[in-house]
Amino acid sequence: MEALVERLEQAVVRLEAVAVKLQHCPGGVANGDIISNMINGGESQSMEAFDLLLSGSVSEYVKTSTSIGGEVAKHAEMVNNALQIQRAFLKMAMTHQEPSKTELADLLRPLSEQIHEVQSFREKNRGSSLFNHLSAVSESIPALGWVAVCQKPGPYVKEMNDAAMFYTNRVLKDYKDTDGRHVEWVRSYLSIWTELQSYIKDHHTTGLVWSKTGPVAPSSLFSASSDGPCPPPPPPPPPGPPPVFLDNSAAPDDTAAQHSALFAQLNQGEAITKGLKHVSDEQKTHKNPNLRSQGERTHQDSPAKRPSASVRAPAKKHSPVLELEGKKWRVEYQDQSRDLLIEETELRQVVYVFSCNSSTLQIKGKVNSIIVDNCKKLGLVFDNAVGIVEIINSRDVQLQVMGKVPTISINKTEGCHVYLSKDSLDCEIVSAKSSEMNILVPEGEDDYREFPVPEQFKTVWDGSSLVTEPTKIAG
Length: 475
Description:
It is built from ten helices and 16 strands. The protein is α/β, with parallel strands linked by helices.
């Protein structure tokens, strides 16, 4: 990694040398002045601000991580390397025009690989006693992908920072009364993202600022060296926000970035429907007899011989369902379906979502109630519900209310994020036998503020009755 950063610095040095040569070439004085001004003038303010971040919060974070030691110290080295790579990238952008999307992906590859390495380290150390520290870093490190976010990269960094706070609150809870180093670690680490938001607001408010007069950034800039080009590295995960859902059955390295996956998508608000595909009548089982008959044949077919008692029968493969049955919308056995849409709704109808995996469902209009049962990695966005919205026996559910809902019930569920609208702030949220629940309320135009739902409670006898109160999470 040090060699990679060194090559990045060498590329900038060579560019500076080009500026000097242009100043001494006939007709090149003007161009040389422009490039020199870009390097020595426009670069200084932005780079000084970024260097201040590195020498401040980042330095403190590395220092406290080294004091704690173990996996936390190793993780900090990786994070510091990622920030150094980003610094070199920012310095390059100030002297080059924005390249094509394909070439930009190549330029971002070193940063993307380092982000992936940080997240993989958490997955490889799940048995660590410092796992909450590693998780806080792993969940928020995609914030460095802000350089690939258009229009408003600042709110994206804030979302990643919010994703870290669930785990930093756990760190504070475990160590606030026993070891001050961990409290300082939380403060310094979260300060990195807070200061990065300020840096973006001051220098890259509407997206990464590229040079308007320099040469177009070549995809080979970062791979070039004095000895010639290096062979391209293997394809990394895409920079910036990770894919919306990843299957836990994949290798641990492939699941590291799943938590923050749906934040950016849900925060699109009404614009989320732009990425959805309309489900035609031919694709709906209740309107296409051929699909219904295929499902019936699947259920009727049976093997000629029963498997012996010593051989386990394979799990039955169910056909996906999206149909209206009487007053009930059935959405069942959907897998990797990220464009599900129900828009022909009525007030009397209920929606039952069962056994769906790694899918996203949008419900338009107003329905009576919604039930999500036995689902995993489901994203649900709905307009209005006049009754209850219930999440039961599920895991990793992201829920966003666009209009109003009176009650949300969460039962036997691990991992549930609820995004409320301004009109739904008065809803009641009831939970039981669930963990990792967070409620996000709107704050400003594009931001949300996250509040964890208590999982632990304290019960005392006050002399006449038992009094139960939630224990506060430090933060």
